[in-house]
Design goal:
Layout: H1 3-15, H2 24-34, H3 39-52, H4 56-61, H5 64-70, H6 77-95, H7 103-107, H8 114-125, H9 134-143, H10 151-161, H11 167-180
Helix pairs in contact: 2-3, 2-8, 5-6, 9-11
Length: about 200
């Protein structure tokens, strides 16, 4: 069995397999908030934010200062508050308040990079896309699935060796695995069932 097949089998057994989608606008804003912020903080802040605002018009009707105060726990909260207002305005003016469903259009929005755009495609629209964050870049390199220097290179290689139906799911499960076991510092190799195929474990 190939390493990638063993990884998919392991992640399926540990986390299950499900490709769920949710509101694309919520995915877009939540992923924007997640940049340089811990996942736990992002989840709490996103929940609080969307209990006050639901759609682009709600954010436009509010002030940048009010939005900033609600998202203050996240990194660069003032910059992100400004981005949220800018993005909401563009969505209203250009796409009738809807989030666009192509990579190119998403990347045209201020502050939106490939990771965020791919998250929106995968988790907002169910379109095959593989978002590469620090976990998704680190773990395949540790395992020896890829040998890449940048998240973009990792995305290119993984989309060639991982079946499309797993792209969106792989991001979510590797993030969980990266927090629980394959941590950036002091990974819990003794608890990992992938140690037999892991390049990092050979060191």
């Amino acid at each position: 069995m190939k390493k990638v097949d063993k990884l998919i089998e392991f992640l399926k057994n540990r986390y299950g397999f499900e490709n769920k989608t949710t509101n694309p606008y919520k995915v877009l804003i939540s992923t924007l908030l997640s940049q340089r912020t811990r996942d736990e903080t992002t989840e709490a802040v996103s929940s609080k934010l969307f209990s006050n605002y639901k759609k682009p018009e709600d954010f436009i009707a509010s002030t940048e200062e009010k939005i900033a105060s609600l998202i203050k726990p996240v990194g660069f909260y003032r910059v992100k508050a400004k981005r949220i207002k800018e993005i909401s305005s563009i969505l209203i003016e250009k796409w009738d308040s809807e989030v666009p469903a192509t990579l190119e259009e998403l990347l045209s929005l201020p502050g939106i990079g490939r990771k965020t755009a791919n998250c929106v495609l995968a988790h907002g629209f169910g379109i095959p896309a593989l978002a590469v964050d620090t976990h998704v870049h680190r773990i395949p390199n540790r395992l020896g699935l890829v040998n890449t220097r940048t998240p973009y290179e990792t995305e290119e290689v993984l989309t060639q060796i991982v079946p499309k139906e797993y792209w969106g799911w792989l991001n979510k499960t590797l993030v969980e695995f990266g927090k629980e076991i394959c941590r950036p510092i002091k990974p819990r190799c003794s608890q990992c069932k992938l140690s037999s195929i892991c390049k990092f474990n050979e060191n």
